[in-house]
Amino acid sequence: MIHLHNLTFRRGDRQILRGVDLTINPGEHWTLLGRNGCGKSTVLEMITGYLFPTSGKIDVLGNRFGQVDVREIRKRIGYISPALIEKMTLRDPVWEIVASGAFAYLRFYEEIAEEVRERAYIELERVGLKSLAEQPFGTLSQGERKKALLARTMMASPELLILDEPCAGLDLYEREKFLSALSELTSDKMSMLYVTHHIEEIVPLFTHVALMSDGQLVASGPKRDVLTPDKLQAAYDLPLEIRWRDDRPWIEVGKVEQR
Ligand SMILES: Nc1ncnc2c1ncn2[C@@H]1O[C@H](COP(=O)(O)OP(=O)(O)OP(=O)(O)O)[C@@H](O)[C@H]1O
């Protein structure tokens, strides 16, 4: 599904990625964790073909980047990023925003086929937003916008879902609603890579975790093997304890020394 081979990325005199290797198999749902600036979004931008590595190889959905038209592969990937949210036209009705996902357009300039409209309503119903379908996108709360974009992503039946901090800025209620919509929508036929700063977002849906530090993966594998106090302490440089409840991890931070 995804194979990253020894990816490096250099910008000027900064080494941003220092040899990233990662394999995501079909049906695995991964979270990517790590401190601000460690290179998480850079990895996502490479998997979606918006950035090219300085060296290394990228295989996504059976295609080697550099040998294929990435626009064709992108049609099979659902990608929700902060940049995408900013590109949406706030005055467009929610259902139109969702419908545009069927074609990977940002917006429509022609009439939308009835079956596409119906499908958009179905996807909106699946995320619990059908009653808001006719409202302008800009009137939705941040959490509702994220769920609408999730519905938009589902219009193209993606084989791979890439989510860059989708719960950033959401309150507890909106976050839990988003995570439960995500758990409902995804199947084990779809692979996922989800970047977050919040370990408690690793709901049972997620199977694997990759931990990044300073442009490298310092641990990766099944979530219980990676989410250990030792590994997290090393990556976050903080005294941490982890508790599992209903297959979901919760973090406790110990006393932090000022340096
Ligand atoms: N095009 C670029 N030119 C120069 N520096 C860049 C470029 N893209 C990213 N960087 C730098 O690379 C580092 C990694 O950025 P990236 O956005 O991948 O980190 P991140 O782990 O996603 O961070 P955050 O958690 O804060 O979103 C940062 O220090 C950033 O400033």
TrEMBL record:
One of its GO terms (cellular component) is ATP-binding cassette (ABC) transporter complex. Transmembrane segments: none annotated. Keywords: ATP-binding, Nucleotide-binding, Transport. InterPro entries: AAA+_ATPase, ABC_transporter-like_ATP-bd, ABC_transporter-like_CS, ECF_ABC_transporter_ATP-bd, P-loop_NTPase. SMART domains: AAA. Gene3D superfamilies: P-loop containing nucleotide triphosphate hydrolases. SUPFAM superfamilies: P-loop containing nucleoside triphosphate hydrolases. GO terms for molecular function: ATP binding; ATP hydrolysis activity; ATPase-coupled transmembrane transporter activity. Residues 2-239 form the ABC transporter domain. Pfam families: ABC_tran (PF00005). PANTHER family: ABC TRANSPORTER ATP-BINDING PROTEIN MODF, HEAVY METAL TRANSPORTER. Belongs to the ABC transporter superfamily. This is Iron complex transport system ATP-binding protein. The lineage of its organism: Bacteria, Bacillati, Bacillota, Bacilli, Bacillales.
